[in-house]
From TrEMBL:
Record GO biological process: SRP-dependent cotranslational protein targeting to membrane
Coiled coil: none
Keywords linked to the UniProt accession: Cytoplasm, Endoplasmic reticulum, Nucleus, Ribonucleoprotein, RNA-binding, Signal recognition particle
Keyword RNA-binding attached: yes
Family: Belongs to the SRP68 family.
Main location per the UniProt record: cytoplasm
Source species of the chain: Oryza rufipogon
Classification of source organism: Eukaryota, Viridiplantae, Streptophyta, Embryophyta, Tracheophyta
Top-level taxon: Eukaryota
CDD domains: SRP68-RBD
Pfam families cross-referenced by the UniProt entry: SRP68
GO cellular component: cytosol; endoplasmic reticulum; nucleolus; signal recognition particle, endoplasmic reticulum targeting
Subcellular location: Cytoplasm; Endoplasmic reticulum; Nucleus, Nucleolus
Protein name: Signal recognition particle subunit SRP68
Length: 592
């Protein structure tokens, strides 16, 4: 058998022709959608960076196994991902999740409040994230399509800006990277599906506060408190510079608190000597200005509730500082009197803001009470929930008026405040009675509902008589509307009750006419041998006849009673001769 002759090697033109015949495969990844879906589904919806880091680790392990891209057994063998390695889109996913794991680890350390050593470690993880993000951008530019390459470039720019922003060494370069990210997402947001446009818009909104913070830093202008509060957003991007905002705000408040020497409440002034108490009260007052500002109508209810929580936290901190000062005041009567007065004033403001917050909750519940279902498919508010909220308001007003009236010598402002909130408590009682009547009405109890509507109207009318000269026109209008509602609902309940009473004989006769003395229809368990339906008709509410429950009583035969009458008449034979005789010894013969 002859050997084939050796063939000459291919020429350069043949190699180029073969390369042209094989088109280069371009991978496509929607980077922003992939990132947002992974983050929202695995912890970052609630700011849990630890859970997201563990998810990235588990995802990387699955990718390694599916691609058989393992790193040896026992001893770790490093395997780099290069352009020639990327033969599947999952190799790009590996690089992406490596960057995400390093970033989430850094954010986990940052949100935990790192010390100096942990901060060095955190910056190291940010550098690792930048390294992997840069490699991801490079590989996407070589192996991905144009959109994937552009999104990867924006992702890498964001990571670089994050590192520079955290290092605080080159704010200008950080702002440049953030602007590049914004520019890319602005272009990408003009095309694609509506979901993609919304994602790009959200990403731009996350980057905007960071650009604003950098520009104010570079401009050298002092960052005002209201400007910093405007930068507050939700999400991972805000977590990055949340600590910086808090540091700047605390520094600003400390400077302003130096000039704050007293606290005013209802015509009384209380001196403040503790610096921490000043800062806490000043923080609460600034939040109150944001809550009661000119644009408060445009602020959503959820954000208002968040501001209320911050106000309560600030006043609680101030009260704890005051009580610590009281514990260390000793026997100095003047200092103790001033601190007790300040503690009472802060507690009164805390109760006042609690009433405002509960009124906001009532307005939210009322807006859901009037509609059946909204676009978000939220459940409607039951009247019992409003009754519970008004119970809280009545308790809050009672506690506040008791606190204000506990002093011996009350001034004019305190007396006016007590009268105003006693009338508000009366209005809250009327509202509670109205929604309690609504609750009874929904349960079909017409008599109780009618009586409660009439009682609510009488309370409302008595409150209106006391508010004839009140400057609170909004409260007067609300009470007038409540009185009209009580009147109309009482008429409706009265008429509905009469109609139901008129229909009672008809329903009774209809029910009696359906009674039968004959045998009832059989149940399913009684007719297993025959094929008959045990279900009721589809247009009626007849229950299914599966089995009798509780089961009926069944007759059970008793056990026979046996009386042994012949026992006494039987004469038994004498069997003494068959019994064993007992042997007696010599001594027993004498003594028996």
């Amino acid at each position: 058998m002859s050997k084939p002759a050796d063939q000459p090697p291919p020429s350069d033109m043949e190699v180029d022709a073969a390369a042209e015949e094989k088109p280069l495969v371009r991978f496509s990844i929607n980077v922003l959608e992939l990132m947002r879906e992974a983050q929202m589904q695995h912890g970052l919806r609630h700011g849990d960076y630890t859970r997201y880091r563990r998810y990235c680790t588990a995802r990387l392990r699955r990718l390694y196994k599916s691609l058989k891209f393992l790193h040896g057994r026992g001893k770790y063998t490093k395997r780099n991902i290069t352009e020639s390695t990327v033969t599947d889109v999952r190799f790009l996913h590996i690089v992406f999740y490596m960057a995400e794991r390093a970033w989430s680890h850094a954010m986990e350390k940052k949100t935990a409040g790192p010390n100096a050593q942990q901060r060095i470690y955190m910056l190291g993880r940010f550098r690792k994230a930048v390294k992997w993000a840069t490699l991801f951008s490079h590989l996407c530019s070589l192996k991905g399509d144009s959109r994937t390459s552009l999104e990867a470039e924006a992702y890498a720019s964001y990571m670089k800006g994050t590192l520079l922003f955290e290092q605080e060494k080159n704010i200008e370069a950080a702002m440049t990277n953030f602007k590049n990210t914004r520019a890319v997402y602005e272009e990408l947001g003009k095309y694609g599906s509506i979901e993609n446009q919304l994602l790009c818009r959200q990403r731009i909104e996350e980057v905007e506060p960071m650009i604003g913070f950098c520009s104010r830093k570079l401009g050298g202008s002092a960052l005002q408190a209201h400007e910093l509060l405007d930068l507050e957003k939700e999400g991972p991007a805000y977590d990055l510079f949340k600590a910086k905002i808090e540091a700047v705000l605390s520094e600003t408040r400390s400077q302003q608190a130096a000039s704050m020497t007293e606290f005013s409440w209802l015509g009384r002034r209380f001196p403040i000597t503790n610096a921490k108490t000043r800062v806490s009260i000043l923080k609460a007052q600034q939040l109150e200005k944001d809550l009661n500002g000119a644009n408060t109508e445009s602020v959503p209810a959820d954000k208002k509730l968040g501001i209320f929580d911050k106000i309560f936290s600030a006043y609680h901190d101030a009260r704890s500082c005051i009580r610590n000062d009281l514990a260390s005041a000793g026997n100095a009567e003047n200092i103790r009197d001033e601190l007790n007065g300040l503690d009472k004033a802060v507690s009164a403001v805390l109760g006042f803001r609690t009433i405002e917050r509960n009124q906001l909750l009532v307005s939210i519940a009322k807006s859901k009470f009037t509609k059946h279902r909204d676009e978000k498919n939220e459940k409607i508010t039951k009247p019992e929930e409003l009754v519970r909220l008004y119970d809280l308001l009545i308790q809050n007003t009672t506690d506040l008026t008791d606190l204000i009236s506990s002093g011996r010598d009350k001034n004019k402002e305190e007396n006016t405040f007590i009268q105003e909130y006693e009338l508000k408590s009366l209005a809250f009682r009327a509202e509670r009675c109205f929604y309690l009547a609504k609750s009874y009405s929904s349960a079909g109890k017409r008599a109780e509902s009618y009586a409660l509507f009439c009682h609510a109207r009488s309370i409302t009318d008595s409150a209106l008589q006391q508010l004839t000269n009140s400057p609170d026109k909004a409260l007067v209008q609300d009470l007038k509307a409540l009185s009209d509602s009580c009147r109309s609902n009482s008429f409706i309940e009265h008429a509905t009750g009469i109609m139901e009473e008129e229909n009672v004989p008809e329903r009774l006769s209809k029910g009696v006419s359906t009674l039968s003395l004959g045998e009832r229809k059989a149940f399913l368990l009684d007719m297993l041998e025959s094929y008959e339906s045990a279900l009721g008709e589809s247009n009626t509410k007849t229950p299914c006849r599966i089995a009798r429950f509780p089961p009926p009583f069944q007759s059970v035969p008793c056990n026979p009673i046996v009386l042994d009458m012949a026992y006494n008449a039987i004469e038994f034979p004498n069997i003494e001769n068959r019994m064993k005789k007992e042997k007696k010894g010599l001594l027993s013969r004498f003594w028996g």
